[in-house]
Amino acid sequence: MIQKLKLVVFAVILTHLVGCASPANKDEITPKDLVLSQKINASVQVKTSGGSETGAMEGTNISDADLKAAIEQAISNTELFSKVVQVGDANYVLSVSITSLSKPVFGLTFKVNLETTWTLTNVATKKVELRKVVASSGTATFGDAAIAVGRIQMAVERAAKDNISQGLTDISKLTLKK
Fold it and tell me: What is the pLDDT of residues 71-92, one digit of tens each?
């Protein structure tokens, strides 16, 4: 009887320490205080790929839809482009592809590495104005979140936020015409 009780207590504790994974929150991966060197008087359409949905028993992932929404919100917040369009007459297409998202399996401090490819193309001329691999990382400690899934989620979100900041900063340094 005591053996069964110990097993039940262990299972309950393990469930609270491990928990179920949650996807990256698009609001947490959107840079809030990003200041860019210039504004571009043109419209942009954002496309994302390489992301994946988060399963209940795996670490936090970044979905294409959430990455796209975070990039679009950051562009709107910073006014980097004069307009973000969903479909149609954009002057530029920004394609961001997640090529690598490495996450630790265990530990008190989680460091996540994210690599993406950013490509900005002028729609009228088909000229690729920017093609760049952006590497970023995010760290979360036991002090940030005692539960492992919370730490991994925070680390993934921090890596994604930094990645978006770097990518948009690089675009803001370009000399682009409508």
Answer: 999 999 999 999 999 988 899 9
Where does the pLDDT of residue 57 fall: very low under 50, low under 70, confident under 90, or very high at 90 and above? low
Q: Which whole-number Å values give the CA distances from 79 to 58, 63, 76, 107, in the listed order? A: 36, 24, 5, 39
- The CA-atom distances, in angstroms, between 29 and each of 17, 20, 119, 169 are 24, 20, 20, 15
Q: What is the pLDDT of residues 112-138, one digit of tens each?
A: 999 999 999 999 999 999 999 999 999
Report CA-CA distances (Å) from 27 to 3, 108, 128, 161, 169: 45, 25, 29, 10, 19
Architecture, CATH, for domain 21-172: 3-Layer(aba) Sandwich (3.40)
